[in-house]
Write a structure and sequence with these properties.
Layout: E1 6-9, H1 11-26, E2 36-41, H2 45-54, E3 60-66, E4 81-83, E5 93-101, H3 105-115, E6 121-129, E7 142-146, E8 151-153, E9 169-172
Parallel strand pairs: 2-3, 2-5, 5-6, 6-7
Antiparallel strand pairs: 1-9, 3-4, 8-9
This protein binds inosinic acid.
Length: 174
C-alpha cells in the first residue's frame, strides 16, 4: 500500500464546508442556548478548532477519548469510552464532534454513554462519512463530506500517528 498521501479536499474546500456546517448547526438550537461540543480525540481536534471559531454563538467544549484502531487501519473489537466527558451533560444541548464515521460503532457507543447522562438534546456532526462500511444504523445529523471507502489522513486524521498535521485531507493506499 502506498503511504504517500494523495490530496482529496484542499484547505480552502474544508474551510468553506466548515463554515456551512457551523451555520446549519447554529440553526438547530433556540436563541440564547449555549450548545456543548463534545469532541472525540484525537482525530477531531482540528475540525473542532475551526468549527467553534465559525459558530455565530458561544459554545462550550469538552473532550472524550474512545478506544482507537491501534496501529492498523481496520476496526478492532468493540469500541470503549476510555476517558471523559469531564463536564455535566444533564439538560445541555450536546453536539458530538467526530472526525469520521466509518462502521459507526464508535459513535454508537459514545451516543449510548452520553444519552445516559440525560442531555436536553444530542446531535452529531462529522467531518467525514464513509457510509459503505456502516455496520450499525446510528444517526448522524450533519456531514461535511461523504466519501468512498478509502483511508483518509490529514486535518487531524492519522495513520499510525502520521499525517495529522496536514492542513488538507488526503487519501493513502491509492
Ligand atoms: P468507526 O467506529 O468504524 O466508525 O470508526 C471511527 C474511528 O475510526 C474514527 O474516529 C477514526 O479514528 C477511525 N477511522 C476510520 N476511518 C478512518 C480513516 O479513513 N482515516 C483515519 N481514521 C479513520
Amino acid at each position: 500500500m502506498s503511504r504517500v498521501p494523495v490530496p482529496l479536499y484542499t484547505a480552502e474546500q474544508i474551510r468553506n464546508r466548515v463554515a456551512e456546517l457551523a451555520i446549519s448547526l447554529d440553526g438547530r438550537f433556540p436563541a440564547g442556548a449555549t450548545p456543548h461540543f463534545v469532541a472525540v480525540l484525537s482525530g477531531s481536534f482540528m475540525f473542532l478548532a475551526d468549527l467553534v471559531r465559525a459558530m455565530p454563538r458561544p459554545v462550550t467544549i469538552d473532550f472524550v477519548r474512545m478506544q482507537s484502531y491501534g496501529s492498523g487501519s481496520t476496526t478492532s473489537g468493540t469500541p470503549r469510552l476510555l476517558h471523559g466527558p469531564s463536564s455535566d451533560l444533564r439538560d445541555r444541548h450536546i453536539v458530538i464532534v467526530e472526525d469520521i464515521v466509518d462502521t459507526g460503532l464508535t459513535l454508537q457507543t459514545l451516543r449510548q454513554n452520553l444519552i445516559a447522562a440525560r442531555p436536553r438534546s444530542l446531535d452529531t456532526v462529522t467531518l467525514l462519512d464513509k457510509p459503505a462500511r456502516r455496520r450499525t444504523d446510528v444517526p448522524v445529523d450533519l456531514v461535511g463530506f461523504r466519501i468512498p471507502n478509502r483511508f483518509v489522513v490529514g486535518y487531524g486524521l492519522d495513520h499510525n500517528e502520521e499525517h495529522r498535521h496536514l492542513p488538507y485531507l488526503a487519501v493513502i493506499g491509492a
